[in-house]
Write a structure and sequence with these properties.
The protein has about 450 residues and is an alpha/beta fold. It has two domains: about 70 residues, no CATH class; about 290 residues, Ribonucleoside hydrolase-like (Inosine-uridine Nucleoside N-ribohydrolase, Chain A, Alpha-Beta Complex), CATH 3.90.245. Helices cover about 25% and strands about 10% of the residues. Strands 3-2-1-4-5-8-11-9-10-7-6 form an eleven-stranded mixed sheet, sandwiched between helices. Strand 2, helix 4 and strand 3 form a beta-alpha-beta unit.
Length: about 450
Amino acid sequence: MRPPPFEPPELALPPELDAPPLPSLPPLPWLPPAPPLLEPPVEEAPPDAPGVPPLFDPPDSPPDLPPLLPFAPPLPLPPPLPWGPPSAPDWQDAPNNATETNSKTPDDTLAAMFHTAAVALFCSGKRAIAAVFALVAASCGETRNLGTSVPHGRLPVDDRNPVILSNDGAYDNWQGEYAVLLAQSGGPSLAGIIVNRSSAWMDLDANIDGWRGLVKAARDSGLKGIPDPIASVGGTLARPSSSRIEDTMPIQSEGARLIRDLSRSLSLPYRPLVVATGGRLTDVADAYLMDPTVAERVVVVSSLGTTTSSGAAMAAPNGEMDPWADFIVTTRLRYVQVSAYYDQTTDVPSSRLSDLPPNALGAWIAAKQPKIFDLAVAADQVAIAAVGISTFVTAVQPVSAVGSVSAGAGPDLVADAESGSLLVTHSQGREATVRFWQLLLDASTYAR
């Protein structure tokens, strides 16, 4: 009998080794699906309290994911500062609307600008912008003056303004000598010298030769930045039959062209070009007739006329030379009349000739000293001293031009608190003389 076929016994795993079939693997917990792109909520929840909303969710936010930043409304930013110098204050606008503007917004002076009632009472509605620029300039350590500081003296122009001289003869006063010395240290830079003629100084060739002699002596002594004088050929302006300024025929003189051109290149809204005159106002008025925008870039400071009980007369000295030009300048340009003279023979008395520096300028002054007019109203240097020496002017008065123009005088100047023109009524000649000798004897004046 055959044995039954062999069948291996069924092996059974011990109970502790039994295991269910392996299940399918779930998604790895450390690889969560990518979060959606951040988008602003459809509606923003109002903040619990006024102010800026918190930058993070409250502490009970889910710990497994970082909280999303709420979309807070952006903080308001201050308006951007404009690039460049502050916009020109209203006194830079045409003179025919300056009175109305300034009467509406009187305030402390913030810039080198014209007054209404006095130097301390003139400011435009744009002073806020100028103040912002002053703050920015101070915080950055800026050294360039942006025109937001008060004037250095009692006039709205000072030693920081470039200056053109305009005069006739070279030997009756010390205007040129003051100008070349002040330009070396702490005074206005000398941008140009215009030489014309007058009834007292008819020979234009002799006049220009005299000024060239001063310039050569100054340069030979080491003074820098002294321009060549130019001769301005032409007569006086003719008043048209209509008596309208716009109908006046311009001369287009060399002096007028220089004023027009240098005002375009040198004048800044907060630092206009000054024309300091010691003779007739023809070239200044002619420059305006050629280009009326000259009025926006130029301030005229004139040694001219005399004070009166009501203001001043635009007569001798210098005002009688071209009365129609006087009228144009006082009604269309910013004008300062200096009618406060002093004894100019005290500037270089004979007793001090031995104190003059041993150079070409000292020799020039010594040779000129006997020719100086012993006449206070001949001291044309009061115009440049009023601009370049802050302590020279001691009293000013706002004035306006009134009345008719005669053959020997321009309009009268009368007190007017609302006017932009100024009259210098008092000065200190000693302040000018002291400064003159300081510069004359300072070795650094000749070593720049």
